[in-house]
Amino acid sequence: MNLAYFIAKRYFLSKKKKSFINVISIISMLVVAIGTMALIIVLSVFNGLEGLLRNLYGTVDPNLVVSANVGKSFVYGPDISNKVNSLEEIVSITEVLEDNVLIKYNNAQRVARVKGVSESFIEQGRLEDYLVFGDLKLTSNDISYAIVGRGVQYDLSINPKNDFYTIQMYFPDEVRPGMLNPEKMYRLKNILPGGVFAVEKSYDENLVYVPIRFAEDLFNKKGKRNLLELQLAPSADPNEVKKRLQDLLGSSFLVQSNDEIHGDLYRVLSYEKFFVFLTFSIIIAIASINIFFSLNMLVLDKKKDVAILSAQGATRGLITKIFLLEGCIVAFTGAFTGLLLGLLVSFVQQEFGLVTMGMQTAIIDAYPVKVEWLDVLLTVLSIIVITIVTSIQPALSASKSVAMTDLQ
């Protein structure tokens, strides 16, 4: 066995006396363990939330979106249609025409985002898993229906089973000089509520889906579209298809992938995760200050032992190594314990979902957790760096005492 490690382990596991130094070392070990466990758990929760959002947006939102590079809308004609349909990887196209609209139901009113979509939207089944009430339909027997978010339904008390009340939609019309009649300053269309969906707050509280023809009449934009939402074959590479489609459509259009559409959100999550990692690393570093003080006191306590080792031929390097390993044993014991506990808690939550969010949602009830081994590796590396930084000064102090003994 390595001599330096053997002596360091004896100092750590000594049962002859439990001094104040031992108590500080144990406290340091526990704090490092708790900090490491908390860091692993929190990072795993962030990974779980990011994975949940990516899965959610990957299901509800399209793989690719085509929009006008200049202006809000474009004319969707055969030329654009042929170019888009020329790529075999594109299996479905949803035409979209949307804008903010004042909607009324019974005696309540509010502004919502009305999104006119073609029938392919229903065929894709993007809302099937999120329908909470009514039917998932846009048209039936030449009657138009609206699919509303649950937040909109709550605000207006919409009942899809009540055919006596329709949703009234008001949209500003073109105001011409000399127009005095207020009723001609807006367009009004009525539509029956068909179903209610619950996906996520930003969707539920803002979106109302209607047939594309209904939206054309409401917005007075025949043949115009704001977006083309494209679904790709499972084996297709979105980035490759995006590049080829962008080349086909030219600079007049902008093609974006799902990750680019929600890029700001993913970046915010990444920044939050980084600052959480930084914060907990600082907490572990503060906990390691106890290791620094306990090692300094241990150096003072073991002066006689150091003198004996020096007299027996121990070098400065050996003495430095002993106390450096002592600090590593304390820190790594705590870190390894915290690492195991953090992984255990994360895997239990991942499998059984014991800790819930305290509310029933359409997405998930328990906190999502996902362990990424890169996080584990970075945590271990940060603890190694912190331990070396906090242990090296006391170890060097011990080696200096050897040099002074030699001079005497």
Which features does this protein show?
408 residues; alpha+beta; ABC transporter permease; cell membrane; transmembrane helix
Give a brief outline of the structure:
This protein is an alpha+beta fold. It has 13 helices and 13 strands.
Helix content: 40-55%
- Order of neighbouring strands in the sheet with most strands: 3-4-10-7-9-8
Secondary-structure class: alpha+beta
Mean model confidence by pLDDT: 85
Query: Quaternary status of these chains?
Result: single chain
In total, the number of domains comes to 2
Order of helices and strands: HHEEHEEHEEEHEEHEHEEHEHHHHH
With helices defined by DSSP (H or I, 4 residues minimum), what is the helix count? 13
Unreliable spans = 403-408
Instruction: Count the beta strands.
Output: 13
Please state the CA-atom Rg, rounded to the nearest Å.
33 Å
Distance between the termini: 32 Å
Instruction: Estimate what percentage of residues fall within beta strands.
Output: 15-25%
